[in-house]
Amino acid sequence: MQELIEIGLKKVLPGILLNQIAFYSLYKILKNNECIVDVAYTVSHFVAGSIYAYHFGLSSFENKFKLGLLALWTARLAGFLFYYRILRGFRDPRYEVIFVNYKKETFKRDVVVFGQYIFQGFIVLVTSSSLYFLFKNSLNPYQLAILGTSIFWIYLEGLSDHQLQSFKDQKNKAPDSICQDGLWKKSRHPNLFFDLMTWTTIAISSIKSKNDALALISPLVLYYVMARLTVPITEKLMKKKRGDKFTEYCSKTNKFLPI
């Protein structure tokens, strides 16, 4: 526990915050597109993982494999967000709601957004903490097999993102239409569920002793953020735009579980 705190505060947190500040600078360069914060979140996890990996050594094939899986998750999610959100100029209505009070006050808005980037950095420090245990421990074949299933979850998260994006790209669809294609038939947030499964898999596969159970803090905090912040804001906007149609969709569709 002491080593985790020491490495986290002295090495990982500075790296994360530098990455967050770099992405805030990109946010200003690209004309204040708040969606960049989601890309920063993803890349900051890779920064944290890289620091843990180099601290414990990358000489073994095992740790290279672990870092490769993290790179795969990062490249998939960050690449998707950057292409479909940033390059296409998409404006996320969730952030418009958050910053609506600062629409005409540029300086105050910039201060609040900068604070969001820094605060998110501290959240990443916690949600990436399972990576400390992942790179510290040498895993047995059973644990490596569990970790390997993360490829499956990464694929399904990508599939759900693709299905939603394909729905959004459809022309001539009704303004109040709701994506119910593929995985979205069974879950209102399948992409979040599979992302949570990825980090749960990382945490579980990293546990070799009772003390290592602290790795579970990562997916637990991630779930809390999803359940208490991301989902409520998203669904409030969906309800506002689609009314009773969205209420009906919620009544017959699970929030997370795609079953």
TrEMBL record:
Transmembrane helix recorded as keyword: yes
Pfam families: DUF1295
Source superkingdom: Eukaryota
Keyword annotations: Membrane, Transmembrane, Transmembrane helix
One term under GO cellular component: membrane
InterPro entries per record: UstE-like
Segments traversing the membrane: 35-55, 67-84, 111-135, 213-231
Protein name stated in the entry: Steroid 5-alpha reductase C-terminal domain-containing protein
